[in-house]
Amino acid sequence: MSEDRSAYEGLADAELLLLSRDSPEAFGTFYERHAEELLRFFARRTLDPESAAELTAETFAKAFSSRHRFADRGRGGAGWLYGVARHELSHFYRRGAVDRRARKKLGMPEREVSEVDYERIEEMIDLADVRRLVASSFDSLPAGQRDALELRVLEDRTYEEVARELRCSEETARARVSRGLRTLSARLESERERMAVVEEVR
User: Has domain 126-201 been given CATH number 1.10.10.60?
Assistant: First the structure.
């Protein structure tokens, strides 16, 4: 597999997508080229490692399934990929959940985010945004999420410490933080959209 992919490394994104119609391994090179940055894109917008990982997987599944419809109209392969990503993100904000249809269609198994990957993705998130949102939206969150976010985000406790303080399992502590962050991410996106409108008016 590595020998096959090495033949594609010097090609542009658009070329990889066009070739992947008949040679799916070319899409593997496209994936490796953009996966980390796309994960970072989702992490900074959802504020939630699990949602970011799921959105990244769904976006690539959707892109792979629709690669035959790709046409290079000046945006290149990366521009097309982020168009798919923004569509998935918009769906996430509207529904409050990640679409799984493309992965199911491809028969991709559901994968839990490992503790190591969870912490790695957390490092991609802009903690200044999170801390500001937690502080400003504290009273509007359910008590369980509020307490978990205070310990994890504001006090920078480990999940083991959060669980011990809240007298629950680490899995429950992580879930409470995750749900709280999903709520806050929607508010952050609304704020970004509002600021974008203000800038356009100026």
Answer: no
Distance CA 97, CA 165 (A): 28
pTM above 0.90, yes or no: no
CATH topology of domain 2-105: Rna Polymerase Sigma Factor; Chain: A (1.10.1740)
Amino acid at residue number 120: R
- Terminal Cα-to-Cα distance of the chain (whole angstroms): 52
pLDDT in tens, 146-171: 899 889 888 888 889 999 999 999 98
Q: Say yes or no: do domains 2-105 and 126-201 share a fold.
A: no
Which tens digit of pLDDT belongs to each residue from 89-141?
988 887 777 888 888 888 888 888 888 888 899 888 877 777 777 777 777 78
